[in-house]
């Protein structure tokens, strides 16, 4: 408003066809946010799946032995499982017509705490080599992530969404930051934890 006050508007977004009310679909703000999050997640899963063959080939060609290859592939699978298991909640939505600002919390694996747990476990094992520990910890990490037993972290994020050509979306930079947070990066990038 002119007074600078923010009001929550457009609680529901109505889409209707030309012919009848049977074509009418109502998309609430929360459904819109969920759809966008799921589209980002689906894109990430697709990218993982598309690159899997290349990762397997890279693991074979760049490692010295089977153990290193397995560790590299486990790392890939750990990240993939963490990404698939990420969730979010919408804390607040500020609708502004063809734009909206979402305050969300992304919940995903806390790799820092998970690594700390594994290091504590390593300290209690006297006769284990570093290489054996690495292999054991990668397998343990994968098991914990797959079973939903890994420590989780919730990170807040502001997401700007916009409407273009009757479709809601987010810009590529925001999408990349969101993906980073879904991987567990506290800074929102894939290589900064």
Short description:
With 193 residues, the protein is α+β, with helices and mostly antiparallel strands.
Overview of this protein structure:
By secondary structure, the protein is α+β, with helices and mostly antiparallel strands. Helix content is 50%, strand content 23%. It has 5 helices and 6 strands. It has helices at 29-62, 66-85, 111-123, 130-147, 172-182, and strands at 12-15, 25-28, 87-95, 99-109, 152-164, 167-169. Residues 1-24 and 189-193 have low confidence and may be disordered.
Number of discrete helical segments: 5
The overall pLDDT, averaged over residues, is 76
Q: How much helical structure, as a percent, in the residues?
A: 40-55%
Ends apart, CA distance between termini: 40 Å
Structural class: alpha+beta
Strand content: 15-25%
Q: What is the subunit arrangement here?
A: single chain
Strand order of the largest sheet: 3-4-5-6
Q: What's the count of strands?
A: 6
Task: Give the low-confidence spans.
Answer: 1-24, 189-193
For the sheet with most strands, the description reads: 4 strands, antiparallel
Calculate Rg over CA atoms. Answer: 21 Å
SSE string: EEHHEEHHEEH
CA-based shape = elongated
Per-chain topology:
Blueprint: E1 12-15, E2 25-28, H1 29-62, H2 66-85, E3 87-95, E4 99-109, H3 111-123, H4 130-147, E5 152-164, E6 167-169, H5 172-182
Antiparallel strand pairs: 1-2, 3-4, 4-5, 5-6
Helix pairs in contact: 1-2, 2-4, 3-4
List key phrases describing it.
elongated; disordered N terminus; four-stranded antiparallel sheet; alpha+beta; 5 helices; 23% strand; two-stranded antiparallel sheet; 193 residues; 50% helix
């Amino acid at each position: 408003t002119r007074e600078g006050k923010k009001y929550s508007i457009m609680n529901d977004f109505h889409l209707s066809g030309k012919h009848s009310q049977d074509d009418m679909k109502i998309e609430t703000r929360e459904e819109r946010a969920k759809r966008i999050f799921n589209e980002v997640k689906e894109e990430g899963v697709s990218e993982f799946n598309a690159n899997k063959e290349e990762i397997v080939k890279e693991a074979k060609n760049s490692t010295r032995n089977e153990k290193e290859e397995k560790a590299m592939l486990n790392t890939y699978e750990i990240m993939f499982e963490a990404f698939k298991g990420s969730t979010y909640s919408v804390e607040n939505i500020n609708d502004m017509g063809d734009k909206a600002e979402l305050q969300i919390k992304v919940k995903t694996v806390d790799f820092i705490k998970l690594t700390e747990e594994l290091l504590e476990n390593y300290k209690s094992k006297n006769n284990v080599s570093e290489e054996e520990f690495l292999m054991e910890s990668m397998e343990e990490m994968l098991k914990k992530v797959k079973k939903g037993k890994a420590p989780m972290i919730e990170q807040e994020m502001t997401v700007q969404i916009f409407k273009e050509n009757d479709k809601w979306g987010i810009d590529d930079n925001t999408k990349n930051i969101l993906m980073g947070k879904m991987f567990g990066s506290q800074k929102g990038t894939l290589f900064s934890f």
